[in-house]
Amino acid sequence: MENEAFVYESWQARVVFGPGRVDSVGDETALLGAKRIFLIADRNAPGAETARRSLGTRLVGRWDEIAQHVPVELAERAGKAVESAAADCVVCLGGGSATGLGKAVVRKRPVPLVAVPTTYAGSEMTTVYGLTDGDRKVTGRDPNVRPKVVVYDPELTTGLPLAVTGPSAFNSLAHCVAALTAPDADPVTSALALEAVRHIHAGLPLVMAHPSDVEGRGRLQFGAFLAGTALAGTGTGLNHRICHVLGGLLGLPHADTHSVVLPHVVALNATALPRETARLAEALGAPGGDPAALLWDLADRNGIATDLASLGVRPEHLPVVAGRVEPRPNPRPVTADDIERLLEHALAGRRPDTA
Ligand code: NAD
Fold first, then answer.
1. Across the chain, which distance is largest between two alpha carbons, in Å?
2. For ligand 1, atom 39: residue with the closest CA
3. Any idea what DSSP says for residue 234?
4. pLDDT digit string (tens) for 73-94?
5. Closest by Cα among 109, 94, 95 to 144
6. Whose CA is nearest to atom 10 of ligand 1?
């Protein structure tokens, strides 16, 4: 590790973190010089009213229609509403779907985006946007979609249903694995990813046992922040490509696919990445252990999905999904057949065993 040569690129974002901080949205937008602010938030999003109040008369429009995977036509309609309001700043408050809509809107209209995440999706820290046209989900990178300010308020997540909490935490863990195993990983992104794993691994059981525990929620959200930051410095991998096809083609919720698919992708690449595999096991609290099995156990112990069948996937879907997943790049060469076999294990919910 010492004297390892690397290039690390960072980018500027202002991150405001802490219980109750949603009331700083008004001040944060004022610091950006914004005078006409458009709020994108789920109708019942926790904190939306506080954010609205803190914006006062500078609030010029609101949008509460949010959908997973950001359908293109929804992004166009929301974008037109932002344009008609002549907004000079967009605030998106909610899960990855609200952040995704905010990103899609500012991608076409260059006004600053302020994100207030209420899940552990981590999208707020990345340049990645996703849009769905019919049954195809397209993702891309654009520096303009990156929020200028991110306000994390763990209190907003205390009511996040456990059925969303667990998968969302695994979405974050998937970011950690992607960052750790990316071809352009560097010591900084790896340190962020591993520290994120430690926080999520510690926070998840606390929150699953006591959902309104702000400390546990804070650990998950801090982990999500670090994981998103690590991912922003690298890129996604095979796990994300599989999950995006499952989401786009079969309409599965994005986060739910991660807890099922991630352990199998970790198992697939274990021999190609011995150092990263060992570091991951250590961060998951079991030095020398098998991180694929550790991740599967973490999901299983906490009542989080470990099989695609329970999400509605059927055997006949597998060849279609496998055929649509781009196999490259990946730490070891894989074919569509390898991906189909991986999906068979994931469909049945088999515990991976790389020992
Ligand atoms: P989501 O935003 O769709 O939210 C899931 C559900 O939880 C919704 O019904 C929402 O209303 C509800 N919810 C959200 N926060 C809540 C809270 N605090 N309390 C109560 N209910 C709450 O789900 P998600 O998993 O956060 O986001 C998924 C989307 O994000 C996908 O489209 C995915 O592709 C995208 N994503 C993008 C990136 C990126 O870097 N671009 C990263 C991760 C995820």
1. 61
2. 123
3. S
4. 999 999 999 999 999 999 999 9
5. 109
6. 95
One CATH from 3.40.50.2300, 3.40.50.1970, 3.40.50.720, 3.30.70.360 for 14-157: 3.40.50.1970
Coil vs helix vs strand at 116: strand
| Buried residues in 106-125 as b, exposed as e (16+ CB within 10 A) | bbeeebbbbbbbbbbbbbbb
Contact 100, 126 (CB under 8 A): no
Is the minimum distance from the CB of 291 to ligand 1 under 6 angstroms? no
How many angstroms is it from 49 CA to the middle of ligand 1?
A: 19
CATH 1.20.1090.10, the chain: domain bounds? 162-348
Using left for φ > 0, alpha for ψ between -120 and 50, and beta otherwise, residue 70 falls in left
Tens of pLDDT, residues 164-218 = 999 999 999 999 999 999 999 999 999 999 999 999 999 999 999 999 999 999 9
Domain with CATH 3.40.50.1970 in the chain: 14-157
User: For 162-348, CATH number?
Assistant: 1.20.1090.10
Q: Is the CB of 344 under 6 A from ligand 1?
A: no
| CB burial of residue 97 (10 Å; 0-12, 13-18, 19+) | buried
Query: What is residue 233's three-state secondary structure?
Result: coil
How far apart CA 3 and CA 8 sit, in angstroms, is: 14
**43-47-50 Cα angle (round to 5):** 105
Q: Is 62 helix (H, G, I), strand (E, B) or coil?
A: strand
Question: 154: Cβ–Cβ under 8 A, 6 or more apart, which residues?
Answer: 18, 19, 214, 217, 218, 220, 221
Residue 242 sits at the vertex; the CA angle it makes with 237 and 246, to the nearest 5 degrees, is 150
